[in-house]
Amino acid sequence: MYEDALNTYRRTTFFTAEPLKLVILCYKGAVNSLRLAKEAYERGEYETKAKALQKTLDIIHELDSSLDMKKGGAIAVNLRNLYHFMTKALIEADLKRDVKMFDRIASLLEELESAWEAAGRSLAAAGTEGDAAEERPRLDAGALRAAPVRAWNA
Predict the structure, then answer these.
(1) Tens digit of pLDDT for each residue in 93-149?
(2) In this structure, are residues 101 and 109 in contact, taking their beta carbons and an 8 Å threshold?
(3) pLDDT at 76 over 60
(4) What is the CATH number of domain 19-129?
(5) ∠42-26-96 over CA atoms, to 5°?
(6) C-alpha closest to that of 140 among 16, 19, 18, 14
(7) Domain residues of the chain, as ranges?
(8) 3 state SS for 22-71
(9) Is the pTM of this model over 0.85?
(10) What pLDDT is recorded for position 125?
(11) N or C, fewer C-beta in 10 Å, the chain?
C-alpha cells in the first residue's frame, strides 16, 4: 500500500511539474537508472541491468526530443550532440561490458543537472526583481548559458 501511494505521488509530481523541474527530474531519473544498471550488472542481474539501461536511454531520448532547436540555438545543438554521444556510448559500453563508461555518462548527466539547477536559480532571481509578471523570463534551452561540461571521448 505504501508503495502504491509513493508511486502515485511520484506520477503526480512528474505530470504537474514545471518544465525546468521536469528536465531536472529527468536527469535525476537517468542517473539513478544508470547507477542501478551498473549495480545490477555487477551482481549478474542482467535482466534488471537491461531494464534500467533502457530506462536511461528512454530518458535521454525524451530530453533530446524535447529540445527546441529554433529557440535554443547553439546550446540546443550542443545538448543534442551530447545526448547522441551518451546514447551511442551507453550502447557501446553495454556491448563491450564497459561499466566504467556508465559512471562517466552518469557524471556528465549530473553536470548537466547542476547546470539546469543553476539556470533555474538565475531565472528565479531575475524573476523576483521584475516589476510585472509578464516580464518574468521563461526557461527554454536558450536559457542555459555556458554550462561547464567536460568533453568525453568514448
Answers:
(1) 999 999 999 999 999 999 999 999 998 888 888 875 444 444 434 444 444 444 444
(2) no
(3) yes
(4) 1.20.120.340
(5) 30
(6) 19
(7) 19-129
(8) HHHHHHHHHHHHHHHHHHHHHHCCHHHHHHHHHHHHHHHHHHHHCCCHHH
(9) no
(10) 84
(11) N
Who contacts 140 (Cβ-Cβ below 8 Å, separation ≥6)? 19, 68, 71, 72
Rounded to whole angstroms, the Cα distance separating 101 from 68 reads 28
Q: Render the burial of 37-68: b for 16+ CB within 10 Å, e for the rest.
A: bbebbeeeeeeebeebbebbbebbeebbeebe
Summarize the confidence of residues 43-59 as an average pLDDT.
97
One-letter amino acid for residue 143 of the chain: A
Q: Cell numbers of 101, please? A: 563508461
Taking the C-alpha atoms of residue 64 and residue 61, their distance in angstroms, rounded to an integer, is 5
